[in-house]
Amino acid sequence: MSAFAFALRSLVRQPARALLGIAGVAAVGALLFDMLLLSNGLVISMERMLSTTGYDLRAAIGTAPPGRGPLIEHAGAIATRLRTLPEVARVTPLRLSDGLVVHTARPFAVRVMGAEPGSVGAWTVLEGRDVRASGEVLVNQHVLELLDARVGGPLELRTSAPGVRTVTPPFRVQIVGVADFPFESERGSTVGLSLEDVDRVSGGGGAQSADQLLIATAQGTTPAAAKAAVERAVPTLTAMTNAQVLVRLQEGGLSYFRQISFVLTTVTIGFAFLLVTVLLTVSVNQRTGEIAALRALGFSRRRAIADVFAEAVLIVGSGAVLALPVGLALSRLLDWILKGIPGIPASLHFFVFQPRALLIHGLLFAFTAVAAALYPMRLVATLPIAATLRREVVS
Amino acid sequence: MSVIEARDLTRVFPMPAGPVTAVRGVSLAVDPGDFVALCGPSGCGKSTLLHLLGVVDTPSSGTLTVDGEDVATLGDVARSRIRLRKIGFVFQRFFLLPMLTAAENIELPMAEAGVSKSERAHRVHELLEYVELSKRADHRPSQLSGGEMQRIAIARALANRPRLLLADEPTGELDQTTGQHIAELLDRVNADGTALVIVTHDAVFARRARRILTMRDGVLVSEERVR
Ligand SMILES: Nc1ncnc2c1ncn2[C@@H]1O[C@H](COP(=O)(O)OP(=O)(O)OP(=O)(O)O)[C@@H](O)[C@H]1O
Ligand SMILES: [Mg+2]
After folding, report:
1. Which of A11, A242, A248, A270 could, after both became Cys, cross-link A18 (CB 3.0–4.6 A)?
2. Is residue B149 within 8 Å of B157, Cβ to Cβ?
3. Residue B113 with chain A: CB contacts under 8 Å
């Protein structure tokens, strides 16, 4: 009978112990797996979101995040200049702002996005048509529902800037279509206007200003080459590749997720280790008589150790496998809870599955099985046969 | 050649209160087919000597040869191999594995020795018949009586056809009648050619042996030839 068949019988013989061990490892394993999904989840999710926009460079004045830095004046003219560069395929000036939709007595807040009429990739028109001129607006499905309006109907926008709001009259526009906006949160409200109209809604005089330029690299060039070309052509601009944006995120806020997940991973693995060590040690101590008898009957030390190791592998292995579906389900739940934070884009995920997480999960548990078995294996290895047999009879 | 030959075996246990000499200068040879009963008062060193003879314990001094091979210098693998193939052990408390059936318990030492599956099945069948428990093949130890457990344990000890069977108080946990059945079975094992060394407190059982060795304070004090 192989060590594994033997270990399986020992587990079946004490089902409560086996279930406790497997359930414990599964619970710990589910947490561990989630920590692994969390440690890189946001970065991977962010990377996917950035790449789906179809632009691989973002240019702004200074290095502040989009929307926080100074405005790029004459963004239309700058975009036209950049489009002539051979390294650049497309340029879309973008302006993000906040506004209020005047509806009933209670206006509601919207994210206001401005782009040049006809620009590709700022948003995706689902119904109706794109904004072609001043005075036209695209809304997302949620805004349409809130207003109970239809395409073709009117919309009144106000700035959300406190001082300006009271003196300027609301800005009237016509809904020309329904669109999907990038980085939209679950129940977020967004409207799309021309750059000039965003300036007006923001209390300006209708200037063509943007806070960032989305740039797509031409085929045959690298984002780095395009970045260099853009910065050479317009020295006031700083361009960042998607990769650079990600690095910045990783170095900034996202690194906390990594640290948290590293700490929790270590703690959970420690728990798994302790649980399995305790269970195996108790099991070995309960069976010293049997083990000594087997040794007396000719089972080698190596074989006795292999039996304990096989038991560790079975407990940890079953627990670790069971942990995957549990962890995956748990990560969905946690993701859903975290996405409840206002303003989190719907397509952003905190927990993202990657094959690498599976590999690390497997390696960590393989390590745990070995580490947890060490002490009980030592007990078996050093078990004095004669003294144990004698003690079993005397006691 | 003797199955085992002990020369001047001594076993000292270092204890905090001073060393305890459990076996002192014992010399003993067991020939093929021999039947030795080891008697003496409690604590005189019978179990300790039996463990030395069974290669589960190492003497502090003296030599032990099994089939002419000195076991002193052997490592764990070689010593385990000797126990597996040449020596059978029967314990007072049976020590059957509770999660295995009677048949599987008997099969265990054969599997460890690498005996083929068909040969194992054949031998298990043979041994179950030998100990008259064929009907209990698929029963777990918990479903067997003490006497039945000991018979399965004897079958297990015989699995790899050892030349020597060692038993430490094999009837110690059993009532008189059941003990007598076990004694008769061991008698038969000996008659069929296996040498026996048995530790027992039971004088009647001891008289089945060819030789009765009496120990006192770790020393062999007398040898009586019964048959
Ligand atoms: N592992 C050990 N450590 C310390 N002392 C031991 C050990 N094993 C045996 N002894 C001592 O050696 C002596 C002989 O013990 P042993 O068990 O061999 O006696 P025994 O004749 O089998 O007794 P019993 O008939 O009660 O089983 C005793 O004094 C015992 O305390
Ligand atoms: Mg004893």
Report:
1. A11
2. no
3. 298
- State yes or no: pLDDT of A165 exceeds 60: no
What is the mean pLDDT of the segment spanning A283-296? Answer: 94
A 10 A CB-CB count for B1 gives: 9
Q: Whose atoms come closest to the Cα of B51: which ligand?
A: 1
Domain match, A212 and A96 both = yes
Share of chain A above pLDDT 70, in %: 96
Q: How far is A290 from chain B (nearest CA, A)?
A: 6
Chain A hits for B108, CB-CB cut-off 8 Å, are: 1, 294, 297
Contact state of A390 with B47 under an 8 Å Cβ cutoff: yes
Indicate the top mutation candidate among B47, B93, B202 to test ligand 1's pocket, ranked by most ligand atoms within 8 A of CB. B47
Q: Are both A76 and A40 inside the same structural domain?
A: no
For the question of an ipTM over 0.90, the answer is yes
A299 contact residues in B (CB cutoff 8 A)? 80, 84, 112
Q: Do B80 and A295 touch (CB under 8 A)?
A: yes
B197 & B210 share domain: yes
Does pLDDT of A327 surpass 90? yes
Lowest mean pLDDT among A184-188, A365-369, B89-93, B155-159: A184-188
Domain end marker among B114, B135, B161: B161
Ligand 2 centre from A172 Cα, in Å?
A: 104
Chain A environment of B83 (Cβ under 8 Å): 295-298
Query: A47-59, pLDDT tens digit by residue?
Result: 888 887 788 898 9
Average pLDDT for chain A: 88
pLDDT of residue A255: 77
For residues B168 and B203, membership in a common domain is answered with yes
Q: Please check whether residue B7 lies inside any domain of the structure.
A: yes
Give nearest CA residue, ligand 1 atom 25: B42
CA–CA dist A311, A328 (Å, integer): 26
Q: What is the three-class DSSP state of B19?
A: coil
Return d(Cα A209, Cα A74) in angstroms, integer.
6
Residue A208 covered by a domain: yes
Same domain for A158 and A110? yes
Task: Tell which residue, B84, B93, B86, has the closest CA to residue B47.
Answer: B93
Choose from A299, A380, A389 for mutation: most chain B CBs within 10 A.
A389
Q: Tell me the pLDDT band of A288, cut-offs 50, 70 and 90.
A: very high
Domain span at residue A71 reads 62-236
The residue whose CB lies within 8 Å of the most ligand 1 atoms, and thus the one to mutate among B20, B26, B39, B173, is: B20
> Which residues contact ligand 1 via a Cβ below 6 A?
A 387, 390; B 13, 15, 20, 22, 42-48
The pLDDT score that the predictor gives to residue A246 is: 85
What is the Cα–Cα distance from B122 to A117, expressed in whole angstroms? 89
- Intervals of chain B under pLDDT 70: none
Query: Mind listing the pLDDT tens digit for each residue in A98-132?
Result: 888 887 667 888 888 998 877 777 788 899 999 88
The Cα–Cα gap between B107 and B100 comes to: 10
Contact (CB<8Å) A299/B84: yes
Distance from the Cα of B104 to chain A's closest Cα (Å) equals 9
